[in-house]
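Tokens in:
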């Protein structure tokens, strides 16, 4: 099950579970659309994989399957990732 991480690893922008602006790689590294389209150019700085839109978990399912509250942030941001 997807963790639905709460923030962008680059800029620390909040990405709630119902966000249509959250992007993930196959390892669930999570980024906002601005970072994905900008500095990351569509690729994960951690694994090099493609960043695709994260699915939205229906609100009713969040009751028993809540989103993660653990924030992950790249030290120094993503500007120097590549």
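Residues out:
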């Amino acid at each position: 099950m997807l963790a639905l991480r709460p923030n962008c690893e680059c800029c620390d922008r909040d990405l709630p579970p119902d966000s249509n602006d959250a992007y993930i790689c196959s390892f669930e590294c999570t980024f906002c659309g601005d970072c994905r389209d900008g500095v990351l150019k569509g690729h994960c700085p951690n694994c090099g994989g493609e960043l695709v839109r994260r699915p939205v978990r229906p609100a009713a399912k969040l009751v028993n399957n809540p989103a993660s509250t653990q924030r992950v942030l790249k030290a120094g941001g993503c500007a120097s990732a590549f």
